[in-house]
Amino acid sequence: MSNDAKAAPAASSARSKKPASTRGNAPQHPMTTLKRTLKLVFSYYHVYSILIVACIIAQATLASLPSIFLQQALAVIGQYWQSGDWVAAEPQLLHIVSTLVICYLVGMGCVIVQTQLTAVVTQGTLMKVRNQMFEHMEDLPIRYFDTNKHGDIMSHYTNDVDTLRQLIGVAFPQILTTGVAMLSVLLIMLWYSLSMTLVVLIMVAFMIWITRFLGSRSAHYFLRQQQELGRAEGFVEEAMNGEKVIK
Residue by residue, what is the 3-state secondary structure of the chain? Predict the structure, then answer.
């Protein structure tokens, strides 16, 4: 048998093989991924990260304080309502209002600083991650690019990195803000009424269970969405290249 005849089945089988997907690996545990991401961000911008966390904690704490001062203002108004001596109530009300104004101003300042620093950290981290990915990809063998679609490879730089942007710039600040706000509100509720606090905690536990129940099932579809995006970009990349060749 000639060499051409031997090479024909091998070439046919090679053409029949589909390019391997770079997204076939199962995702790691979410908490492990979150810790790695936060550690990566902190290694790039450790000072900015500390300032962002401090601003988020301060803003969330100050946002829960107006309810306390409002309760004090209502108590002062109720105390002087019957007597009508508003001149005596004026210093107390002025003190409460001025404290509220200071809290709002400091909270707004923390929000502005946190927003600006988060934008810097998010965009800077994405740039460094893309650069590291590109440097690592330069060391990969040619076989990697032959066995994976170009669109699927480019999807790591676009869709996957954009998901990282949402985690750093949106999800993590919201989680931290919500956690600090819930803790502050919980302490205030325990101060005023223990029985009502228990009722609220039962409802919160039920909401957390529902969220975990739905989230554990939606994670699978999110992974499939990323895989389909990679396949779609691979198809578009090959179709556009083929159209250019035909033209």
Answer: CCHHHHHHHHHHHHHHCCCCCCCCCCCCCHHHHHHHHHHHHHHHCHHHHHHHHHHHHHHHHHHHCHHHHHHHHHHHHHHHHCCCCHHHHHHHHHHHHHHHHHHHHHHHHHHHHHHHHHHHHHHHHHHHHHHHHHHHHHCCCHHHHHCCCHHHHHHHHHHHHHHHHHHHHHHHHHHHHHHHHHHHHHHHHHHHCHHHHHHHHHHHHHHHHHHHHHHHHHHHHHHHHHHHHHHHHHHHHHHHHHHHHHC
